[in-house]
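Dear U.,

For the methods section draft, I wanted the exact inputs and outputs in one place so we can describe them consistently. I've listed the two proteins in the order they'll appear in the manuscript figures. Please don't edit the token lines directly; just add comments below if something needs changing.

First protein:
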Amino acid sequence: MASRTPTQAEYETLAEFRYALRLFMRFSEQAAEGAGLTPQAHQALLAIKGYPGRDHVSLGELAERLQIKHHSAVGLVDRMEAQKWVSRRVCAEDRRRVEVALTARGLSVLEKLSAAHRDELRRVGPHLRGLLERVGG
């Protein structure tokens, strides 16, 4: 079944939604940079801490969560390890697998950034929710 052409109101809602997302992303980028992190490093810290069921990720899992190539994840972890935000270890069960975990320093910076992001989402959430309802409705 073919989709119908969007209405002008739907274009306007989609445009407003993309704009609202971009504003949030810009907030996030600036917050990360203000904390001394690149936006990608911030995203990596969050991906590690927020991984379901454990306190570490493999390099492959991190690459998937960040939607980057494995070798790019290795380079990112190299840079983050040099800043003492993460540590890596060889997996005890599978020595081919490298696991990455947050250090106390990485957790500290992530906690501050996450609190700021939670506050920003509380501020912009009602607007985003309204836009989502208009798009889905």
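Second protein (the one for the lower panel):
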Amino acid sequence: MKRVTILLLAVSVVLLAAYGAITAYDYNMKVGRMWETPSVRPHEQPLLVMEPGLVPVSGGETRWRLAAAGDLVSPLAGAPAEVIAAGKTLYGRYCQQCHGRAFDGQGTVGQSFAPLPGDLRSAKVQDLSPGAMFKEISYGIPGGRQPALATTINPPDRWRIIAFVKSLGTRN
């Protein structure tokens, strides 16, 4: 009985010492263990009221989203070589993972999709108008696997990617 009492007393002393060390760390160190840290609590202060005119309601992405695909025209008309080269770089950054290096929908990520991503050199894709391609890249394809990339890729870069894809031509 004496051994059990001494063992329990020793374990209690060790646990109290550990608790004291942790508590001292929490109160005396610059960074605690996140059990009591400052945080933003929006319900504790009134919300700021925005001044009128701060949030745009026209132009920008809204202009592209509301326009019909046939009305969208690339601001990079003519697609000079530097636009196509920039589009190729952007394709490698944003599109290649799904559509692949050969533009056939056999990218590393795209292989796991059902259905597979589209072949960018197919007649179906190449016959799309640049405006339709812009809408599909920006807002996705309903019922398809193309994600909406409007928040990921800015509009001029989307047009560069379209110029590059159009420059590929149809697969023979």
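Candidate sentences for the figure legend, describing the second protein: The radius of gyration is 29 Å. The mean pLDDT is 84.

Thanks,
Y.
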